[in-house]
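Data availability excerpt. The first of two example chains:
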Amino acid sequence: MLYHAYELTHAALAPMKALCRAENTITENGLNPWAETPPGRALHAAFQLFDGVTGRYGRPAWGIDETTVEGAVVAVVEEVQVCSLFCDLLRFAKDDDVVPTGTQPKVLIVVPLSGHYPTLLRGTVEAMLPDHDVYVTDWRDARDVPVALGGFDLDDYIETVMDALRFLGPDVHVMAVCQPAVPVLAAVALTAAEDDPSQPATMTLMGGPIDARVDPTPANMMIAGRDRGWLESAVVSHVPWPHAGVFRRVYPGFVQLSGFLFKNLERHIDAQVTYFNDLVKGDGDSADQHRAFYEEFLAVMDLPVEFFLQTVERVFQNFDLARGTLTHRGRIVDPAMIRNTALLTVEGGRDDICPPGQTVAAHDLCPNIPADRQDNYLHADVGHYGVFNGRRWRNDIQPRIAAFMAENSRAL
């Protein structure tokens, strides 16, 4: 019923949305004689604000067409390297005539499967592109995957990372941003236990819940107190028709989004008020920046229910990895097996989702990595989003990660 209520709400808003589009067409084409009057600008701004906050946003495009390498502008194209049911391994390939394949270190960025589309990490990719051959896990929206094709759980997630590492080879550097920190550490530990040649040269874990017992946030404590039955009845729903994944059980993206919104409700309300005032004043640049951010922020995808419930249980309730009880298809995951992969952890001092201490806990789990091949970087002035996006990410954090990769590279 949860998903159906969501769909019915949007259906009920359809007439008002149509009115917003009609008003915008009339105003933008100069057919509204009152458009430049104060009341006209205020009315136009109100329609645009309403249309924006009630919009349904699809999967955003990466929109990365070029980068700069050693001062030269280089064309970039997206290439799907490996295609699977719930994930594409996507490469941002540079013009081979300018930057020949194999001349830059390979970096696998494992993107969160946590409600937003992978494109939320566009800034992460853009900062890594000039000096690295970048690959990302481009997750598929669960509501677009037919239920007859099967499910996807935490074990499948770990296997997806291992498959990507095997495809890319032993000289790759792997980065996990937020939620993937646990499955990436597990994947690297499993490849190490097998003495697999695909073990990455370095592993960078950024703002991830390696040990969610450390300084738990209110969200951590809330989810820790909810049993599986409550979660299935309160936040799990079936995908409705006409989506391709009709009847699939999912954790809907709009539920996750509502949590993000209410967590910082006052800040989001202030942002909408500022947007309205910018529209009235005719400050197009500020209004465009606001729209670009919220079109990305409000675009959400559904999670397979198996993955969601297992992640809650194993990561945030039982703390399996930190306690040494995490398994993958019946095998114990032992990070102590990692010897050949350098480890860097990155935390934000103002991170209210994965606070300092939760990610750095990875070092205690990996005692056999030589001390000179381990490092932790705590940036005191960034929150969760700032760990992987924004000015401080570009100027402070990314250069530290790039330097760590270069110091611990096996190739080039």
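And the second chain:
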Amino acid sequence: MAAKSWGDSMTVAARPATSRSQPRSWHSALAGFCSLLLGIGLSRFGYTPIIPALIEAHWFSAADAAYLGAANLMGYLVGAALAHQLAHRVPPIVLVKAAMLLATACFFACALDWGFAWYFIWRLAAGITGGVLMVLAPSAVLAVTQAVWRGRVAGTIFTGVGVGAALSGTLVPWLVGFGLPTTWSVLGCAGLLLTALAWQGWPSEAAATRAEQAKRATPPRLTASILLLMAAYATIGLGFVPHTVFWVDYIVRGLGQGLSRGGFYWVLMGSGAVCGPLLCGIAAERIGFARTFAVALSLMACLVALPLLSTQPAFLAISSLGVGAISLGTTALGSGSAAELVPMAQQRQLWGWMTMLYAVAYAGSGYVLSFLFARSGDYRLLFALGAAGLLLGTCLALPGALKPKRR
């Protein structure tokens, strides 16, 4: 009954009185989910488990495979930086649909062993589509969602990233056994299916109206509240590095527990990423995005620091599951917090800035922590620094959390 009430209320909220042709809001949320599942979950995270197969098949050397991964990150930054400006010239929904088609084409292109330059172009393009989808897709859906329901809608959309990451870690290694061309082609077929599911779900008329408003809107003024939110969101990049870059290596080599245990804890983290965004979104509906965001940062700091207290299996499992859940949840909370601070016509640009800052902080922190680990060999230092960064983020988020809840 509750689900029916949510869907009915959301449909009314997302369908302007001037149009009866808008898709139901559950379809719009599904469209956003599919876009991030494709553009981030599969296109970005799906590459990592394919790297060993690319090297073993002699398609690329280990160094070349790493450069191709960096090309995807570079493309993501470019896409996030250009998304708002492109949306001034092309309707955002047209851009989103084009990005999903291009992301799908990237899979099929990578099935061809045509050399490094060919792969570099398509991995760069895959990154660009991911950045465009991350900035434009959630904003397009949230712009026509009633404020009271934005929490679970945002959570549903960003769950796509977690589902994609989980599928990449389980389905892709199995597909690799059938050969690289088959693996890439299956991912391409999945991209076609996701694009088709989302195609009619975008709120086209409402989104077009919002796009016109965004064209006339001035960029968000960099107030203290906005700067604090951007800085707090960037700290997640530092806090997430220990678990995404070093976690499995810590389990396998640091604790000597073997690859199977490392894989188990990695799957736990992926499982948390699947449910985290929706749970965080529901919490945000009750106490507000800004408050939930601050609480989530503090919890994530504790979870990242948990291995410093004990390496017992229960502690490692809680750390894996919790970091996976909250790290993806903070993405939904960051987007929603931006919508609380500025009009929806400006949210897209602010969210684009936050996305870029996070990507830069994540990449930069990865290099810095790798440098420190290479010289110290101390995993505990990595977890301590990650937790410290998140505690700083909590302090930066507190002023916004202490303000009255906004609707």
